[in-house]
Amino acid sequence: MDQPLNLQPQFSIESAADIAREHFGRDGEVSSLPSERDQNFKITAADGQAFVLKIANPQTPPSLIELENAAIQIAFAISSFESPQLIRTLANSTTTTVRDPGGHDCLVRMISFLSGNPLAQEAQLAPSKSFLLGQSLAELDVGLTNLNQHSAAKREFLWDLRNAPAVIRKAISQGTDWFAVDDQNDAASKISLLKFFLAEFEKVESRIADLPCSVIHNDANDYNILVRDPNPLLKESSIALLDFGDLMWTTQINELAIAAAYLLLRDDWMGQIEAITSGYHDARPLSGNELSVLFPLMTMRLCQSVCIANAQRKSKPENEYLGVTEEPAWSALKRLRDENFSDWQLKLTAACFGSQADETKQQDNSGRVVNPIHYKRNELIGPSLSLSYETPLHIVRGKGQYLFDPADGTYLDCVNNVCHVGHCHPKVVAAIEQQASLLNTNTRYLHENLIQYAERLTALLPEQLQVCYFVNSGSEANDLALRMAKACNSGTETVVIDHAYHGHTSALIDLSPYKFKRSGGQGKPEHVHLLSMPDGYRGDHRREHVDWIERYVGEARDTIQSAAQTGRGINAFFAESWLGCGGQVPLPPGYLAPLYDTVRAAGGVCVADEVQVGFGRLGEHFWGFEFQNVVPDIVTMGKPIGNGHPLAAVVTTRKVADAFNNGMEYFNTFGGNPVSCAVGLAVLDVIESEQLQRHALDVGKQILRGLNDLQSEFECLGDVRGSGLFLGIELVDDPAKRTPNAELAKRVVESMKDRRILLSTDGPDENVIKFKPPLVFSAGDAERLVLTLREVLQKL
Ligand code: PMP
């Protein structure tokens, strides 16, 4: 990282004058300008026009000069600030070569000289200028993204802010010896300052790797920014940016962090850093993550600057320019030590997102600053309602398999199994619109929609399942199923599979180990009996053993029989047809049939919870229970059934329906209303007309192939499983021991989100990445998913 500076060109004033004349046709008075690595001369012509002759250090690769020239041209086209113009040689080129006294070839350019006072010397600075500076830098950064593919952009450079922690750690490790002998006075307190700022930075360091990178100017320090009295006739801007020599591809937020760092040196720094941040945000919106690292990064820049200056001063005591910021930076660091970093995160966020944020001053659980809608949500909405992702997404529109944020940023939705036929499918939307504009009532009048829908739905089920009840959510469906089971027998005991989730009502929390066994849960109620999850990958019995299924079945039978032997009787057996919250675990072939027999023999009712997986998602079959060759007594449906409209259903046998008809009226205000039934019909129409079950099968196979290939490349992909568009990827530490790696799963999901692909995790150990997108997920999406996952796994 430490780059030798010994080849800095050593031309005399006279030679510089000759070069300016011979190559650029410019004559004038020549004076030397400071530079860290190159040699710069000011040429002032007789007419007052001035230019800078820039002689590059011979160690600078020509491609870097080319990159710099391209950036200068991009900057020149931005009207909000001034930047130098490239002056062509007499041979009409932007660059020429001269040999320095040491015999090295140096590239030479000439640019226009911009007059003005360096920001460092402006005693009074209107915050509007800092705002404009932020805005202009953001505009420049947007323009510089065009250079991201340039071969010289990705380089190792000491002044890359990403190197700051290493530079500082090195200084700390050398202790007070690191200072020159005559600097020993407050060496210990300086080292302790570095330690303090490094520790503050380390609190947010892990977020940096996921922030966007791009080409940036990388050195908007207070000597490279000129404040000028603009000439209104020439439409000049009041600020100018110089010196593109540090240009590189790095974390994009570094641009703002660097410029703001030098504003920290000022007495009036507080208002200035808010102004520059909001100006930048105005032209390139900052994310919550970027804002959360901004203040620590500013201080890192000052620490990096003092560390590098100290090292350079030791090796080149004669170059005063090198230490120009050092003392002001140490003073600023001493002052900033008393600042509260969290408060600054809030203030900068408020500067970008408005006073709402300032008024409520709220943070999420991890102390991170959040968007104003998030603040309001924390205030108004129950806190146990969680959000996805470290920085929650604000989504305002959906179409097909895509979701859009307010800036129209597009996300590929791989988790929403509710918007089954695609977000806002036009046929579903039209059905809602048409029926809602005609009639919406409860079911106490005759209406054809209810009948048509019940006919269509039962036609998709085995003939025994012929009686429908319509409700509004999966929970309501399962709750009703439980009531029906209770009407069928006098049993009190219920059997469920471990880690299952069946819904949020009081009765269903009791049947959901996913809830009662975990945080905030009351543990297993006495009347509930758990069958262990028949997980062939990481469960008690594994696919490698020939009789693994029989063992699970045998144990499950024993559990059911011993529940029956309590004398209280089995009421019902609830089972998802494919375990969702349990981590996308398929039931092994032949698992359910013997258990249904055992439950029925004990007088119980068998309920298939198809809330997650029904309606063709699994590809091979329309319903999950069909994989098991069983016919449940009750099937519950939800989520995909209404494509997002609150609709759910219970379909059962005549026998169960008659038992439930015990004199008590069943009434449901919203269930089965004409609008809901119109929606349900439209969803079935689309599944059929777009052949989505078949499509799910094909695309699912394509993804499984891709994931299996990835598995041979990445050991952490312990298991890849599923059917159709219901897949699970189990992340492990050690493939032999199959130890779950929840942290990695979370990081993969976050990194995929940063690449605009939305996934989530689940399973008892939260280490399974769930994939259950709208069924319109295309072959192209599948390819993108696998390629992006590969990129993320490589990076992590
Ligand atoms: N059963 C299963 C299998 C589920 O996954 C869910 C929801 N995750 C429910 C029932 C409850 O459905 P709802 O959230 O619509 O009440």
If you average the pLDDT, what whole number results? 92
Q: Strand pairing plus helix content: what structural class? A: alpha+beta
Number of helices: 25
Query: Helix amount, in percent?
Result: 25-40%
* Whole-angstrom Rg: 34 Å
Q: What does the main sheet amount to?
A: 7 strands, mixed
* Beta-strand content bin: 5-15%
CA-CA gap between termini: 24 Å
Kindly describe this structure.
By secondary structure, this protein is an alpha+beta fold. 40% of the residues lie in helices and 15% in strands. Strands 15-23-22-21-18-16-17 form a 7-stranded mixed beta sheet, with helices on both faces. Strands 1, 2, 3, 4, 5 and 6 form a 6-stranded antiparallel beta sheet that branches. Mean pLDDT is 92; it is low at 355-361. The site of 4'-deoxy-4'-aminopyridoxal-5'-phosphate (PMP) has 14 residues, from helix 16. 4'-deoxy-4'-aminopyridoxal-5'-phosphate is lined by residues 473-475, 478, 501-504, 576, 580, 609, 611-612, 638.
Summarize the structure.
The chain is α+β, with helices and mostly antiparallel strands and 796 residues long. Helices cover 40% and strands 15% of the residues. The strands form seven sheets. A seven-stranded mixed sheet has the order 15-23-22-21-18-16-17, sandwiched between helices. Strands 1, 2, 3, 4, 5 and 6 form a six-stranded antiparallel sheet that branches. Strands 12-13-14-26 form a four-stranded mixed sheet.
